[in-house]
Design brief:
Structural class: mainly alpha
Number of helices: 4
CATH class: Mainly Alpha
Largest sheet: 2 strands, antiparallel
Oligomer: single chain
Number of domains: 1
Protein name: Hemerythrin
Family: Belongs to the hemerythrin family.
Number of strands: 2
InterPro entries: Hemerythrin-like (IPR012312), Hemerythrin-like_sf (IPR035938), Hemerythrin_metal-bd (IPR012827)
Pfam families: Hemerythrin (PF01814)
CATH superfamily: Hemerythrin-like
CATH architecture: Up-down Bundle
Keywords: Iron, Metal-binding
Length: 132
């Protein structure tokens, strides 16, 4: 899960450097494909492990995929205007999603598999230092 999250962060960083409209469609295709792969894996894990709050988590994934598909369709028709704000919203949304929903899923899976809980590190707000 951490590797997939790092890959997504890299895509968002690339999107922040887009200079030309022609760069958006291929990058949005890559983002959309990544989101589908990422969310399909998590959705499968939630169903396979009977993760209790899976419906909320799966619904959030579906909403993001819907938006991604809509923005991609517009870009492929030549309208890239929504792309920067969509990517900015993904960048704003993702840390909270990962910190709360994905970390809960990881803890659930570890506890069910190994009988324990993973250690989760969070950055302190403002200084970038990690705290347990």
């Amino acid at each position: 899960m951490d590797k997939v999250h790092a890959e997504f962060d890299e895509l968002l960083q690339r999107a922040a450097t887009v200079q030309a409209a022609a760069e958006w469609p291929p990058l949005l295709r890559e983002i959309d494909a990544h989101l589908h792969q990422h969310f399909e894996a998590e959705d499968r894990w939630m169903r396979e492990t009977d993760f209790p709050p899976r419906d909320c988590h799966i619904d959030e994934h579906a909403a993001v995929l819907k938006s991604s598909g809509e923005v991609l369709a517009l870009a492929e028709q030549g309208n890239v205007n929504p792309a920067p704000s969509f990517v900015a919203e993904l960048a704003r949304w993702f840390p909270g999603h990962a910190d709360y929903l994905d970390s809960a899923l990881a803890a659930w899976m570890c506890k069910r598999t190994f009988g324990g809980k993973p250690v989760v590190l969070h950055r302190k707000k403002g200084d970038g230092a990690s705290a347990a």
